Automatic annotation (TrEMBL):
It is a multi-pass membrane protein. One of its GO terms (cellular component) is membrane. Residues 313-353 form the UBA domain. This is Ubiquitin-associated domain-containing protein 2. Residues 287-303 have a biased composition (Low complexity). It is found in: Membrane. Its main location: membrane. The lineage of its organism: Eukaryota, Metazoa, Chordata, Craniata, Vertebrata.
Amino acid sequence: MFTTTGSRGMYKAPLSKSLLLVPTALTVLLMLLQPQYQSLFEYNLQAVREDHQIWRLVYGRLIWLDLKDTFCSGLLIYNFRVLERRFGSRKFASFLLGTWIVCAAMDLLLAETLHFLFELQVEMLPAGLLGPVFALFVPFFCSIPRVPVTQLLGQISITNKSLVYIMGLQLLTSSYFMWVVALSGLLSGVLYRSNLLWMQRLLLVPAWLSRVGSLLLEPLLSGSEPTQEAPMGMGATLDIQRQQRMDMLDQQMLLSQLAQVRRNAQPPQAGLLNWNRFFPTLRQRGRNAAPAPAAAAPQARRPGPSPPPENTPVTEEQVARLMEMGFSRVDAQEALRASNNDINMATNFLLQH
């Protein structure tokens, strides 16, 4: 219901999977088996300033020391995997590395500012990968389109991004000084995204390191491509279940037609996919009371040119949203026409193909 891309699991998101497994496993191991070493991983700013323990800027920002922070951060990283599919693993890793470095300077700067203006002494901050997690809200807000899902009490609009913001709010209220880390992460995300002082170029993961990680880690951490429809949630209503099932059937029909076009070895058409050769969507079939696909199959095999596409109107606002994600105008228009102006389905097709 709240997914942004439609594909489930960790498909094409090996870095997100590693961020879920490795720090979480180290957190559980440290808290349950070796609790006497927790003090080494505390994010103690006072020790950094007075005792010059610079290493705490690294150790204190690697492992979570609170199970609530671990759970909320894990859910957010799982939802932010769409950004890795959108940008690629190397660019996604560069964003995490850049914001992780900038957050260290931001934490110290904010702590000194609070002490100078309000005489508020910030001695210790929550530990873990919290700064980059909050920084990921910036590209998530700017790059992922907002698609309404349902209405709550007839007035409050629930979108595909509502659950992510609720989890961020829960993480923000988990400890007293979490708002300092959140502000530091958000500022770091804005600075990196705006490419201030050429951060995106200076803090870019080297190509050789990206290739080594792809060769060594991707076969172990890459998720399999989803092939079957996941079971519906227990709390989903009948309308939402029907909506999800129809979306999945639409997608399977379009993919089967794409495979048939490739098998026939026909010359490629303009744009990303030749959406006009596909069957109409299931919603349009239901409204027009068209015959079943089995009856329409012989007609699709008749020789001669394909029938002209329907002049489905496409709103410029939806086209602009898809273009902001990096797709061309032609591909965005074709995807919207093929999906009957369903921007969620159009985003699925463009991201997966």
